[in-house]
Design a protein that fits this description.
The chain is α+β, with helices and mostly antiparallel strands. The protein has 2 domains: 29-125 and 254-259, no CATH class; 126-252, no CATH class. It is 21% helix and 37% strand. The protein has 6 helices and 13 strands. It has helices at residues 60-68, 83-86, 101-115, 157-162, 181-189, 230-241; strands at 6-14, 17-26, 32-38, 47-49, 52-59, 76-77, 88-94, 119-134, 145-148, 171-176, 193-195, 201-206, 243-259. Strands 3-7-5-4 form a 4-stranded antiparallel sheet. Strands 6-13-8-11 form a 4-stranded mixed sheet. A 3-stranded antiparallel sheet has the order 9-12-10. Helix 1 crosses helix 3 (101-115). The longest helix has 15 residues, at 101-115. The model is unreliable at 6-24 and 213-217 (pLDDT under 50).
Length: 266
């Protein structure tokens, strides 16, 4: 089985012109899948290893987040039913061959379609969101962030030594801006965040963020999830990272979920 898309196209020649009539894509699928209901308890969540997906105690919402690589529920147009946030499932799936992580996400999308009856599509819609940009005209960053070129630099002892020590209430990490810093700000504020800093990889730490960081997989509906004060987050990001959060409204990529249903356990 191929781990990529299969594209089928029908082409008709008319009067010397080539017309594309239809194109279909087939996502890769797991060879074996198991989906069973679980009691709603805290515990281990999404994990993966070569060719396997293990989600022993996850909601449909957290499966969707992993499959589509989402930062926040604000990226989903639905709305999703209540049970998608509050009911847990044990999911185990196996690929017929070793696969990279991006293919694992595609296979998880297929699992959602086959087992949860999920129908979804990507769209660009004009929506309010936050843009993160450099705050200073000279581009200098704040004291609690380092710009890096490669993710592998995150393990460099010198990079770690230059970071301020952590403590109670500190939030931070090291990695690509899109999957680290932006995701943290999205979770804190509940808003879509678009990166316009030009940074690739950063090591960062922010102190005294109000409300703390809520888990992306927290089993409560988005409206009930505690959020930090946006103005306080803006101030901390500006003072400590030398970055600025500014309100914007423009087309952003969102996942439109037309339908989803509880799976039949096996």
């Amino acid at each position: 089985m191929s781990s990529g898309f299969r594209v089928v196209a029908v082409v008709v020649l008319m009067g010397g012109s080539t017309i594309l009539i239809q194109a279909q894509t087939t996502k890769p699928k797991f060879e074996v899948t198991s989906v069973k209901p679980r009691s709603l308890v805290d515990g281990p969540q999404t994990g993966s290893r070569t060719g396997r997906l293990e989600m022993p105690n996850d909601t449909a919402w957290s499966v969707i987040q992993f499959a589509y690589d989402l930062d926040t529920d604000a990226q989903v147009i639905g709305p999703l039913p209540d049970w998608a946030y509050t009911e847990a499932w044990a999911i185990s799936a196996k690929s017929p061959e070793p696969i990279p992580n991006d293919q694992l996400r595609l296979m998880t999308q297929s699992l959602l379609e086959d087992r949860f009856g999920m129908v979804a599509r990507w769209e660009e819609r004009p929506l309010p969101h936050l843009e993160i940009v450099r705050a200073r005209e000279d581009g200098r960053l704040g004291p609690n962030i380092q710009a890096l070129e490669l993710r592998e630099q995150c393990t460099d002892p010198e990079v770690r030594a230059r970071m301020p020590p952590g403590g109670a209430g500190a939030q931070g990490g090291c990695g690509p801006v899109a999957t680290g810093l932006m995701r943290m700000i999205s979770e804190l504020t509940g808003q879509i965040v678009v990166d316009k800093t030009g940074l690739k990889v950063v090591a960062y730490r922010i102190f005294s963020l109000p409300g703390g960081l809520t888990s992306m997989n927290q089993r409560i509906q988005p409206a009930a999830k505690p959020r930090a004060d946006v103005d306080a987050v803006r101030q901390a990001v500006n003072d400590q990272l030398g970055l600025k959060l500014q309100a914007s409204r423009a087309p952003v990529r969102v996942l439109v979920v037309a339908s989803i249903s509880r799976p039949t356990p096996n």
